[in-house]
Amino acid sequence: MTKKVIIVGGVAGGATAAGRLRRLDEKSHIIMFERGEHVSFANCGLPYYIGGAISKREKLLVQTVEAMSKKYRLDIRNLSEVVKINRDAKTVLVKNIKTGEQYEESYDDLLLSPGAKPVVPPIAGIAEAEQLFTLRNIPDTDRIKAFITEKQPKSAVVIGGGFIGVEMAENLKELGLDVTLVEMANQVLAPLDYEMAAIIRQKLSHHGIKVILEDGVQELQENGRQIILKSGGKLAADMIVLSIGVKPENKLAEDSGLTIGERGGIVVNQYLQTSDPSIYAVGDAIEVTDCVSGKPALIPLAGPANRQARIAADNISGRKKTYAGTLGTAVVKIFDYTAASTGNNEKTLRRYGMDYRTVHLHPGSHAGYYPGATPIHLKLLFTPDEGKILGAQAIGKSGVEKRIDVIATAMKGGLTVFDLTNLELSYAPPYSSAKDPVNMAGYVAANIIEDGIKTIQWHEVDEVIQSGGLMLDVREPHEQQGGMIENTRNIPLGQLRERLDELPKSEPIYIHCQVGLRGYLAVRILLDNGFDAVNVDGGWVTYSLATSAQLIK
Amino acid sequence: MTKKVIIVGGVAGGATAAGRLRRLDEKSHIIMFERGEHVSFANCGLPYYIGGAISKREKLLVQTVEAMSKKYRLDIRNLSEVVKINRDAKTVLVKNIKTGEQYEESYDDLLLSPGAKPVVPPIAGIAEAEQLFTLRNIPDTDRIKAFITEKQPKSAVVIGGGFIGVEMAENLKELGLDVTLVEMANQVLAPLDYEMAAIIRQKLSHHGIKVILEDGVQELQENGRQIILKSGGKLAADMIVLSIGVKPENKLAEDSGLTIGERGGIVVNQYLQTSDPSIYAVGDAIEVTDCVSGKPALIPLAGPANRQARIAADNISGRKKTYAGTLGTAVVKIFDYTAASTGNNEKTLRRYGMDYRTVHLHPGSHAGYYPGATPIHLKLLFTPDEGKILGAQAIGKSGVEKRIDVIATAMKGGLTVFDLTNLELSYAPPYSSAKDPVNMAGYVAANIIEDGIKTIQWHEVDEVIQSGGLMLDVREPHEQQGGMIENTRNIPLGQLRERLDELPKSEPIYIHCQVGLRGYLAVRILLDNGFDAVNVDGGWVTYSLATSAQLIK
Ligand SMILES: Cc1cc2nc3c(=O)[nH]c(=O)nc-3n(C[C@H](O)[C@H](O)[C@H](O)COP(=O)(O)OP(=O)(O)OC[C@H]3O[C@@H](n4cnc5c(N)ncnc54)[C@H](O)[C@@H]3O)c2cc1C
Ligand SMILES: Cc1cc2nc3c(=O)[nH]c(=O)nc-3n(C[C@H](O)[C@H](O)[C@H](O)COP(=O)(O)OP(=O)(O)OC[C@H]3O[C@@H](n4cnc5c(N)ncnc54)[C@H](O)[C@@H]3O)c2cc1C
Ligand SMILES: CC(C)(COP(=O)(O)OP(=O)(O)OC[C@H]1O[C@@H](n2cnc3c(N)ncnc32)[C@H](O)[C@@H]1OP(=O)(O)O)[C@@H](O)C(=O)NCCC(=O)NCCS
Ligand SMILES: CC(C)(COP(=O)(O)OP(=O)(O)OC[C@H]1O[C@@H](n2cnc3c(N)ncnc32)[C@H](O)[C@@H]1OP(=O)(O)O)[C@@H](O)C(=O)NCCC(=O)NCCS
To answer: Is this prediction's pTM over 0.90?
Structure first.
């Protein structure tokens, strides 16, 4: 049977679905409506075009309307907004943006991939702020680019420290602007946990970006040239980028009575069908199932949009394909750093009351004896009993996203932390260590589960010390010059066995070293000698990264 | 119970086992015997120290005897060779290399990690060749380094094109020597298949290394300054590195009656016990089960040695841990290229008569619109029915080992090519594409299984053409200037739908493009229009890489 399929939205989800639909059926009639001028463009490249890393605008246009129509034999109608769905009649009402003219088009199956839109809160003075921008598409990009070229702004305030906010802050800084980033939460990059995000926050500061946390915009004055913060502070700015998040483009779906979820996304079943089985929906507009928590989630990322689109196209063509949910694997470049994450973070696990354990490690990106190795700050979250992997975060200069991709793959395979110890990952000195950081994370986690190795987290350290707990630093004395936890005693690991009689058996001994490894060795020695010993997970590095960020707040 | 454990071999497997044994039990008596002077050194770094990338010799010494003895409270005896095992008495006979003195030492458990030794064939004249070297340990390295410093050789012949041979060829070239690599097989790097290895062979040639394939050394003359090849050719060389492989150090085990496998490795069970349950063995000396074929295999790599060592230590300490076999994931740097592989290659699958399918892709390391993307040549092998992953190989400048690590992890998780399409891998423009190369490999493979998309491999192309088959090039005419398959017709993909009447329905139409993607799109169009169409897997790129290597042989 030759179908007539209508697609709403012509970029990541829409264009991918169109391509796959055509490949599966040469004869079906496929109409792709796109409200904007451009289809199939590289949303994710927009900040880098603004910053100049991508030098040519046409690079952003992955496909033109003409080329794509021809290649896939599609009926692409850009500057055409679908304004209404008549589900009973199986028609859509389309508005030609240029002429204002409206017309109906019938469908057998309808696919919605309308994306998301930037959140724009009702801040006083926002309507008058002429140099305030959001970034979602090519016209947004052109506006920002033109403003920078013509007005030569010297300073910018980026509101919101999510992926796009951080990317924009970096790219504007690369252009030579004075950049301030304002974020309501106590950290940037919400997918990371506080102590991990603290590394990025420091990185931004080192590159001269002023980061203001736990503060928001109260009001804009002087046509947006003056920003009044909720704290009462004031910022002057030649331009503002507002990037406090996106929300699903759900109006069309909502108006036509499709079920919308609690988080505002279109609800779909495992076949990516909406509450109307002839209407499929994919991409930023839908609610997906969070693979870890099983809860509905909004995960506005290009990979899931592309994958969902192909699955929806398969289902429309009569194949039964299911979408199993989203892990939320994500990555972002911050100057010469990379931050990546997958699965749930600790904040999410806590919010859902899930039971979990945490390890922090700082292994080298490759063998220490081969030049150029840099630390990877790695956090792994897992269940306390079976060691099921719940999530991971990593930050560093090199090899970061590789480790997250490996863990994301392990999660898809249902592997545990014990399985991580057995992964066989590529090893030669320029690439890794014989025990890859992922293997090592598995070991550290397995020791907690199998042998009950006790750890405390960085945020529990101060309380231990305040309540008079015994904190032992097993680093060499000279290492303490680089910083140390207050009120700790020092017995270097090499002397521990000879100095056991200096330690009490009546109370727990909290131990830390630089990264956690020697602390763990000390714990093993003490435990086997009848002491109660607890390691500070991630050692001084995790503690100091997290707490120095608190200090410079 | 406090045990006395003896370890034979003090490097990768031995040292790792010693550390773990100590962590698990402070009180056991652990003696580690090492024949050489050094323990716990970085075998894998040796070529890079010779080449100068690793500048300091002490970097190679991960642990000294003194430091390691202290850190792990070990009884380390270097320059001490275990020459005999008396299994009934549970003792070993030890020879002090310095004094020649021999003594017995008893054990409760014995762990063998004696490694492997370079294969040295009985070539005529080899004993007289003073400037012929093998590379396994620090003394070997010192010898080579001293020879280069003192004798200032201008030319080197590396015999054997495995990992160590290729690494040595590169490192000697970096030192400015004229390097010739001689290899008996028709390709370098045996873990790769021919057409993949061809890329590396070209790379070596581009860097000025002369590669001679399908030839071996017949005789050495003039104290090794003259090499006579089996082909009759002659090579002059100031130095020779012999690296034609390693074989298990099995003599001690064999002499003491432990079962040795068909491939010469010590046979162990899943607990890494030899045929004597008080004797464990790990590392290069043992036969492991190849995870894919289920056959015994020798896989002399550091990662497996380290992992096996920890498992054996766990078992010695009374935990029941099993070793599930080895995938053989490996990686090597070749100048600015990386080659990595996991699982079985096509040669192995063919040798074992296993049923498999192949796909070749050449996706970018990251989004094409972000600067710096380079192609990854990726090969995936899988079962024709369920899409079980059998192996993968990848070569390129960037992101290569990441994709192999992801696939190796998927294999450990028992995932299929269909699961690869659903992996959620980190995507932002500097790192990948919304459809990661691994997802893409999954798609290409899934199309073959699900939709019966037919492909032929590069080595079948010439036969198709010779037997008069119709080969259609769907690239743009100007692309043919970069090279083309002989006797093909050209209809660019964009014109295909209009020119269907030029094509016959009576015979299969073989299609190729640059990398396989447009060829696939053309196949879909033709199939849906009632033609019989077959895609050339990997397109012109795979075909030309493989065949141009044949030409320059
Ligand atoms: C600046 C920026 C950087 C990003 N970087 C990354 C990144 O690094 N990694 C990553 O994974 N993701 C990134 N993303 C997110 C990614 O681009 C989205 O997840 C993805 O594009 C979602 O696909 P979609 O099809 O749901 O929506 P879109 O790609 O946004 O497409 C939706 C289209 O539908 C059109 N539309 C909406 N309603 C209608 C209607 N009624 N009629 C007709 N047309 C309509 C819209 O005009 C829009 O063009 C980034 C996004 C932005 C904006
Ligand atoms: C130059 C080179 C480069 C390499 N590069 C890589 C790489 O990039 N990636 C990778 O994964 N692997 C690499 N390897 C392989 C890796 O080093 C080995 O797989 C690993 O070291 C094996 O560990 P093992 O404990 O079995 O043997 P070894 O580490 O070799 O240790 C065995 C030790 O046992 C001692 N011994 C033997 N018999 C006796 C005895 N009877 N009494 C006392 N002592 C004895 C030997 O002297 C030796 O020191 C490389 C090897 C070499 C030589
Ligand atoms: C450009 C765009 C239209 C491409 O969609 P697409 O046709 O699905 O994807 P590709 O061109 O990458 O091709 C993928 C297809 O080629 C096949 N393919 C890829 N390489 C192949 C090869 N070497 N041999 C054979 N087939 C191959 C794949 O199997 C897949 O086909 P399938 O889905 O039928 O299995 C769409 O992804 C798009 O608009 N992207 C830009 C917008 C966007 O994604 N933005 C967010 C990120 S910036
Ligand atoms: C150096 C050598 C002795 C180290 O052996 P090791 O003690 O097993 O390994 P490491 O020092 O890396 O430490 C690993 C241990 O620390 C733990 N650990 C690592 N990081 C940690 C952290 N941040 N917090 C807590 N524990 C940590 C691991 O869990 C593991 O302990 P476990 O096995 O009891 O679980 C041994 O690997 C060796 O000799 N290597 C050189 C030879 C070689 O491998 N050659 C081939 C490659 S070149």
So the answer is: yes
